[in-house]
Amino acid sequence: MAHDHDQPARDLALELVRATEVAALASGRWMGRNEKESGDGAAVDAMRQALHDVTMDGVVVIGEGEKDEAPMLFNGEHVGTGEQPEVDIAVDPVEGTRLLAEGRQGATSLIAAAPRGTMFDPGPMVYMMKYVVSGEAGDVVDVDAPIKENLQRIAKALGKGVNDVSVIMLDRPRHHEMMAEVREVGARLRLITDGDSPAGLLAAMPEYPYDVVLGIGGTPEGVATACAVRALRGNIVGRLWARDDEERAKARELGYDLDEVLTMDRLVSSENTFYSITGIITGDLVQGVAYGPQGATTESIVMRGRSGTVRWIRTRHRPEKLARYHADAQR
Description:
Layout: H1 13-28, H2 36-51, E1 57-62, E2 78-79, E3 86-95, H3 97-102, E4 108-115, E5 127-133, H4 147-158, E6 166-170, H5 176-185, E7 188-192, H6 196-204, E8 212-218, H7 219-232, E9 235-241, H8 245-253, H9 264-267, E10 274-279, E11 290-292, E12 295-304, E13 309-317, H10 319-324
Parallel strand pairs: 1-3, 6-7, 6-8
Antiparallel strand pairs: 1-2, 3-4, 4-10, 5-8, 5-9, 10-12, 11-12, 12-13
């Protein structure tokens, strides 16, 4: 595990939350309008603007695209004022672009941060097999073991029967065999269409009735989730998953070990992590943006890994602030 840097000493998440809030405010206007790019673009523009006001020297390690695909927050982009502390940034201005476009529950905006050089770079590996669990079950998961065995271990660690264990999994064809294994052991299964990063928080937080997220989801989302799970004293473990032989060959050419078990320490090697998530459309985790004549309200959760602090922040935003992020949505 890498040595923690002295900086940042302050709770950076309390400043990053402004960026997730404005991204939610800007993109929330696009709810259900079936325009994924417009909603995402509004969030990106607002988030970038807010991030440049944060006192930090941030580099986007996990973004949405390369530089020639603007307006995405691209990998390698510098954000912040350029002053200390030096941090890696993972952004997802709209986690669940399809949810937002189709007006479905659970779209969020999120940012994670950690000291420079401590975040895992997924490179070409878009997907990873992953388990996310709460602290009580943090040490019992073996990514090489059958799902049935892991769920039995999780149940024992949580002090309940396997029939009472609640599993969250993305509803994807690649998961059909895994779904069958979960059902065979008798655990409860909640299928979601998108958003396995917020789902990881549901599994790791005692406030919500879920115990484990498992399945093949995004590697970038896994890194961001690891920053939150540190604060929650939970665990995430996984392994890179190649979609085809071409991706497998490219990963090996770049030096990625596809057999390596990716522990939480590997995904983010510092305990000094920061995480902010704001609801765009109401879901299990947070309330969505509510617009009204007096402005709008947002709900966010912010976390700091080192202290384990978790805060729920409900914010009222004045109409004049909303106006800054509303022009692009008026057509």
